[in-house]
């Protein structure tokens, strides 16, 4: 029935890694994810895992280590944040196109500049098109649970997977957590049995080929299919995880959406704060709801469109900006999801919020809902591109 | 459908292409006919050739086979792209580049 | 105890305020509570003012923001009173616990009209006398437990003793000193 513990989000991820005992870790430290390789390094030193820990001089190299190791037939893991993730970008594309199911823990942090160590999603969102699966966590528990499901998902579709949590807000906060017994973890995650790998002496292979225009787009179409196929895999693994732990996972979480007239669409730790706002507003009779995005890649377009189809107004909350003079990535994709699924009635606005660690309060989210109230009443969205909690 | 290099023809459909264009067998360059890139082709005059073997190592492909007897043989035109390096290094003018009539 | 108690810690980098908040979370966790213990991070250095927080509740709190209306405030360094608005948002039915050798009445005028309980504990002196070093966070932790009763004080003492006996098995003098510091702190905290 699980092990009652209290751990920080970084500790929880390092502990999940320990339970899984991957073959290779390539890592370079950067705040706020540094603790993950730090704790895991201690497990390596203490002989609690038999992982080969490769220390490197940069994140470009840590991802390269993972690519080499995973191609060789190993389970490879890494962890990073912010500019470290940016520095990996070139190799993230390679990992995805080489179809190597590497697992990367990301403790999300703002990108420079101005230089800032606190949380937002500008790092993860800037690599959203690299071809990686991306799961986001609201709590330490979800960061841990997502990590335990990561390899099952990635290895089923041969795509690498990022397990994202909010830097400091969950990575450095102690919270209650229910751990899964290690024998159950090992049974759930299973052994890695790659179909093709470099160390297979019976099948010489070449990884990282050059593709001329005759082949490149076919290769990308095949990669796109893997991302589409991942939706069902994530649901299936989430359901199986639910049977084991009682904590069931989907692509999105709907909170008080059944009769909601207004809703926010949100990612990460602020979803918890927003739930408190929803609870308070529900007590005063407001029909408000929330959609939390767990899987950003693949993007749960159908699920979101279905969940939003009956609301009068919604706000997509972006913890990063696209600087396109228009909107952030979550709003863009949410609106595209609605349009593609023939849902045109809800009025939608976009809030850029929480950049560089700007604290997101229950009151912040209540402000958003009061704006949505006005829009629901008048049918006028006004400016759709807005900043939340910024000094005017 | 196998995932062998011979199946990765220009007609291959996206469902059948290898993931990442990875190649699941070794030595596949042996089957790539680079000879049809050729405009000029080297021709050897065996009377002038002294078997000095300066030509064989400079060939960027594998078009100048050297036998177990330590002597070079006839050009392998399946691979020869007609680059002319061999003709250039030959100290005895034994190799001439001529228009290729395929 | 109320369903949720929120505590804000003020200290200086290196004084252990963050550690104290994590220890309090531990102690509350061990009595079956839901806990959050988290620092507010920035480019802090030794001596810079820092803030840490605790939420302790009977049901899981989903809120992930800082705490603006704390039930209790703990000030680990008295010199912060002149530079940090330590009572900001502090509920009058709550209390502030300050590491100081002064009496509560002497400090109340510095607290911008705060009307709730003002408590002082000379954690620095207790630490010097019992541990031979200035580690104020252990006595401060004991004082906030006593004042807030967020954890049953007796259960807290037992729990901390057990965890120290585990952690410092080879250094019994550390355990005894800490236990004496904790006990004295609970006895000597002045409530004004």
Describe the structure.
The complex is a heterotrimer of chains A (392), B (102) and C (192). With 392 residues, chain A is α/β, with parallel strands linked by helices. Chain A has 2 domains: 3-245, Rossmann fold (3-Layer(aba) Sandwich); 252-387, Rossmann fold, CATH 3.40.50. Chain A is built from 12 helices and 15 strands. Chain A has a 7-stranded mixed β-sheet with strand order 3-2-4-5-7-6-12, with helices on both faces. In chain A, strands 9-11-10-13-14-15 form a 6-stranded mixed β-sheet, sandwiched between helices. With 102 residues, chain B is low in regular secondary structure. Chain B has 2 domains: 1-31, no CATH class; 33-102, Alpha-Beta Plaits (2-Layer Sandwich). Chain C has a single domain (4-191), classed as Pyruvate-ferredoxin oxidoreductase, PFOR, domain III (Pyruvate-ferredoxin Oxidoreductase, domain 3, 3-Layer(aba) Sandwich), CATH 3.40.920. In chain C, strand 2 (34-40) and strand 3 form a beta hairpin. Chains A and C meet through strand 8 and helix 9 of A and helix 1 and strand 2 of C.
Task: List key phrases describing it.
A: 392 residues; alpha/beta; Rossmann fold; 2 domains; seven-stranded mixed beta sheet; C: 192 residues; Pyruvate-ferredoxin Oxidoreductase, domain 3; 37% helix
Blueprint of the fold:
The complex is a heterotrimer of chains A (392), B (102) and C (192).
Chain A (H helix, E strand, L loop, with lengths): L2 E5 L1 H12 L3 E4 L7 H11 L6 E4 L3 H14 L3 E5 L1 H16 L5 E6 L13 H5 L6 E4 L3 H18 L3 E6 L7 E6 L2 H8 L26 H30 L6 E4 L6 E5 L3 H14 L4 E6 L1 E3 L3 H8 L4 E6 L10 H12 L6 E6 L9 H17 L6 E3 L5
Parallel strand pairs in A: 2-3, 2-4, 4-5, 5-7, 6-7, 10-11, 10-13, 13-14, 14-15
Antiparallel strand pairs in A: 1-8, 6-12, 9-11
Chain B lengths: L39 E5 L10 H4 L26 H5 L5 E5 L3
Antiparallel strand pairs in B: 1-2
Chain C lengths: L3 E9 L4 H14 L3 E7 L8 E9 L14 E4 L19 E5 L4 H4 L9 E5 L1 H9 L5 H12 L4 H15 L4 H17 L1 E2 L1
Parallel strand pairs in C: 1-4, 4-5, 5-6
Antiparallel strand pairs in C: 1-3, 2-3, 6-7
